[in-house]
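Intended use. Records like the one below are meant for learning the mapping from a protein sequence to its folded structure. Do not use them to infer anything beyond what is encoded.
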Amino acid sequence: MNTVALSEPLHIQRNLIPAPLIDEAVATLCDLVTAAGGSAEGDLDARVTALAARDRAVLGSVYDAFRDSEIFRRIVGCEPLVEAARAMLGARRLHSPFQHCVFRMDLAGEPWRGFGWHQDYPYNMLSGDYVTAWLPLTAAGAHNGSIEASPTLSDRVHPVEIRWKRDAEGRPGRTRDAFIAQRLQADFDATAVRLELAAGDVALFHNRLVHRSGFNPGPSHRYSIQVRFGDLLAEDIVARAWRHRPVDGFETFRSLHPELVELEESS
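Structure written out for the chain above:
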């Protein structure tokens, strides 16, 4: 259970998402920012920057509205993406709960937005071998803190520390993270590779891939979508009646792997 079954933990597929879908997604985000009281002028970055400076909370409502949009659903279910995930898994039927389809806006210069070293396995708890599709809506690389990965250290599930998310002032939020134990982080730093992805490219990776999306130094913001695909008929997910991770909890992971929870902050 703790070793990777798939032959390679990470695959990059260039231009997998059709350009018209990417263009419509960016245009939809521009329209949402304007509808929320932002500027109707400039590109997406300029509009987001202006709205964030005026009212950061309103920008959060844009996030929610985009995830509810028709174009978001079309992207996460587009045929090239689904078929690429099916091929990587070798699954006849796919399991992709919508709650695990995520949209992220990582704004330049917000240090608390970095997402530390982790594996997706504790976060979603689909079948033992499931994959994440990480796709940027605009170019992602060193200039905006793109995803970093450590494929050579991704052959097992690593122990985690479950801690509360914290804001810029260090105040705890309402949800928690399960980052890999601090004592192991130096090894990942030493073996990290940075992914350079154009809009429409997709990084498909196994749920045990050690990765992080770093602090965005700017000047560009980072907009990305993540989708998870598991094997709907895999024995392990069927045995637990398709139970996966609740929206804000790690109960399923803890119940299956109590020995891998090294620290857990409670309320």
